[in-house]
Structures are given as structure tokens and as C-alpha cells.
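User: Can you recover a sequence for this backbone? Please restate the input before giving your answer.

Assistant: Of course. Working from this structure:
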């Protein structure tokens, strides 16, 4: 696959995250105007409500794009997804007969505010990166041995849909209960070990019925697209609360996602298989076709007032042990109803060497080995005023499929009410 040419000149550069090959879906507003659906193309956004009003796009007899979310399109199913993508490709392609009608419907991305691209139905987070699981075992329990179930089950927990916010939303340092190993009593106050988790989020487009499992292949076809996901984590709160039921308040204060839904269709040329199995999976979870994607990822930290961010990690989504399709299959396997708009966090993505670790917990070895930023400052965990950014792109021949930044700044914690 090579770059597809568009009449939008900025979409034809090798550096743009949003060439015609991508066509990611978001929600935008300009000034005080209301948020509505848009498609990114180069440094412009195609106003989808206006395109529908102009008769350029018709998915249904009724308007679909007069709402600030993509859930209605997701629920319309895979055939609609394909025909919409094909039609957008036609409208925006070089030499298109629709150029004169569509050009006035473009908005400069620089003038737009971006909003949540879809309403999150429910949010589940997994733990499917092997290097991360080994690193956390080594740090928390003194042994990199994986839990007994890890090679057989994509381990997950049910998170909070209410925690999910769009990139650019500030995150308040959480309050919580913690206990130092040598203390008699726990204490309550601001988190002291605030961290990120570099993840991908898979968005379920079409749901399943309660009581009815889905195969890995069916699960793959249910996934509408992907976003970058930062599963902000309060390690000290998590460390005290997590046994025996898993994460709770240590994860519930914020989860950031990138603003554009990059469709599974746009990522199709970048499919790659999960790594070799260390133990054969039970047949229901076996991968039928490559379920991961070759997506380069990086993490950046910018302290308050610093002129530039520092890159602290570079890795790839292909490092994961389980694909989103395997996770979704496992999730529905008991008969759990999966809904359009469900968000599945991949689990922290960490590669085999320190440069590829996807959390500060791993990068600083639980704060014991702080690392140095380009500003000369050191970090073990996140400080107030720090801005954390995730970036990702699948890199093709002369083009890339980018996600747009997933960023968030940490604000000092509030005072607990009297
Ligand atoms: Mn996580």
C-alpha cells in the first residue's frame, strides 16, 4: 500500500498523520458552535453534518451526523462502515467530481476543539503485555514469574466508563488510602506514586447478545477501530487495595484517549500476528488471522514550563501477547453481553528492553532508579504540572496512519471536604 492522493494538499505529505489512507472519525467544534462529527484529512476536518446536509453522504433516510458521537454509525454495522469509508475515499480523492461541493465543508483543524469521539458504554482494561506482567511481578513480588493463569487467559478487570476523557483534559491527582509496608495503619491523602500506562483502546462497534459467546473471528469483525489510551494509575493506592479483587480507586480517577477513532479498515495493511505461544491456548482463544497491528508508539513527558517534551519510551503495539479480538472473545465467552461503544484497554505495552517500557513504574523501577529528562530534571513518578503524551502511528510506504496525541496534564489534588 502506498499514499493515496487527495485534493486536500496537506493530506499528501509523508508526515501527516491523516492522509487519505487514514480517514479517522472524531467530534469537533469551532468557537461556541455545537460539537459534531468530523473526519480528519491532512490539516483539515470534513464537517460530516454539513456533508450529510449537502447530500454528499447518505447512510440512512434520517440524519446520522447531527449528534456529537459516532455510536449511531457504529451500530449500523460493518457493511455501513465499509460503504461510508469507500464514499469518503471517493469524495476526498484527487480528481474527485465532489471536490467543489466538499471543499467549503472543510474546517481548519487548528481552529477546532476536539471532543470525545464516541459515548463509552463500558470500559474494560486488560493485562496482556507479557514484559509488563513480568516487570510488575518482579517489582511487586520479587519474581518475574507470570501468574498461573496468565498464559491461558487475557486477564482483565471492569473499569469505569465515567473515567474516560478525551486528550487534552486535565487530570486531578487522586486522593486515596495507602499504607507503607512498615506502617501500623494506612493513611489518606494525595497519591505519591502517580503513573501512566501506555495502551491501545479497541472500540466495540457491534455488540453481542447476553448468553451468546462469539468466536475470535466474530470478535475481530465487531471491532470498529482503535485509539491510544493512557490508563492513569495511582500505584500506592493500587498496591494497598488490589488484593483480592483487583484495581479499584487506583484506576478510577482518569483514563485518557486520543481524539480520533482510527478504523480497523485503515489499519488493515498493518496486521501482524501475536507472538509465538509459550503454552498452547485453548481452542476457543486461538488466533485465526493476525490480530495485532504494527503501530509505533512513544511516551513523552513535559514538566510545567519546559520548552519541549522528552521522549521516555518507544515501543510497538505488536509486543502484546493477546489481540483485542482474543480479549473480546474471552470477555463474551461466559455469555457477558458486549455493547456497541464498549472500550477495551489492551494492557500496558512494554517491549523487552528498558527503552520500551510503557509505565514509569517500570522505567524507574518503582521509583528506585529515577531517570533524567532533557531538561535535566529527574522523575521516578509524575509530578504536578507534568504533561504526559502518548503518540502512535502505523508506518507505510511514504505515508503513515497516525492517531493524534493522547495528552493530559496533572493538576495538584483537591482538599478532602471538611
Ligand atoms: Mn492498564
Amino acid at each position: 500500500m502506498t499514499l493515496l492522493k487527495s485534493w486536500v494538499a496537506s493530506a499528501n505529505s509523508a508526515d501527516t498523520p491523516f492522509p487519505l489512507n487514514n480517514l479517522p472519525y472524531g467530534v469537533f467544534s469551532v468557537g461556541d458552535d455545537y460539537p459534531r462529527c468530523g473526519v480528519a484529512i491532512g490539516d483539515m476536518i470534513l464537517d460530516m453534518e454539513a456533508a450529510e446536509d449537502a447530500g454528499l453522504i447518505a447512510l440512512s433516510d434520517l440524519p446520522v451526523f447531527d449528534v456529537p458521537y459516532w455510536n449511531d454509525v457504529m451500530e449500523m454495522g460493518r457493511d455501513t462502515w465499509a460503504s461510508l469509508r469507500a464514499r469518503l475515499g471517493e469524495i476526498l480523492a484527487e480528481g474527485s467530481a465532489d471536490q467543489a461541493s466538499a471543499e467549503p465543508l472543510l474546517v481548519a483543524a487548528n481552529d477546532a476543539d476536539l471532543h470525545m469521539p464516541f459515548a463509552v458504554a463500558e470500559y474494560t482494561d486488560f493485562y496482556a503485555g507479557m514484559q509488563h506482567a513480568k516487570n510488575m511481578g518482579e517489582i511487586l513480588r520479587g519474581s518475574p514469574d507470570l501468574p498461573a493463569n496468565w498464559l491461558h487467559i487475557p486477564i482483565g478487570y471492569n473499569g469505569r466508563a465515567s473515567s474516560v476523557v478525551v486528550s487534552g483534559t486535565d487530570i486531578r491527582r487522586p486522593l486515596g488510602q495507602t499504607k507503607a509496608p512498615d506502617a501500623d495503619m494506612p493513611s489518606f491523602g494525595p497519591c505519591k506514586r502517580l503513573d501512566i500506562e501506555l495502551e491501545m483502546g479497541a472500540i466495540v462497534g457491534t455488540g453481542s447478545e447476553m448468553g451468546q459467546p462469539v468466536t475470535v473471528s466474530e470478535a475481530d469483525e465487531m471491532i470498529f477501530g482503535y485509539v491510544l489510551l493512557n490508563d492513569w494509575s495511582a500505584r500506592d493506592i493500587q498496591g494497598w487495595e488490589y488484593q483480592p479483587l483487583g484495581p479499584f480507586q487506583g484506576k478510577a480517577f482518569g483514563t485518557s484517549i486520543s481524539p480520533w477513532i482510527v478504523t480497523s479498515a485503515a489499519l488493515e495493511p498493518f496486521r501482524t500476528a501475536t507472538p509465538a505461544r509459550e503454552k498452547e491456548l485453548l481452542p476457543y482463544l486461538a488466533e485465526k488471522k493476525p490480530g495485532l497491528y504494527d503501530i509505533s508508539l512513544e511516551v513523552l513527558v513535559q514538566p510545567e514550563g519546559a520548552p519541549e517534551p522528552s521522549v521516555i519510551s518507544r515501543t510497538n503495539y505488536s509486543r502484546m501477547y493477546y489481540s483485542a479480538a482474543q480479549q473480546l472473545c474471552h470477555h463474551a465467552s461466559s455469555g457477558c453481553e458486549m455493547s456497541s461503544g464498549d472500550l477495551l484497554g489492551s494492557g500496558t505495552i512494554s517491549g523487552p528492553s528498558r527503552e520500551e517500557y510503557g509505565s514509569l513504574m517500570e522505567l524507574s523501577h518503582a521509583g528506585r532508579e529515577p531517570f533524567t529528562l532533557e531538561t535535566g530534571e529527574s522523575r521516578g513518578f509524575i509530578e504536578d504540572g507534568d504533561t504526559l503524551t502518548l503518540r502512535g502511528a502505523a508506518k507505510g510506504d511514504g505515508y503513515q496512519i497516525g492517531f493524534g496525541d493522547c495528552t493530559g496534564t496533572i493538576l495538584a489534588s483537591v482538599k478532602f471536604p471538611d
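That completes the design. The longest helix spans residues 78-92.
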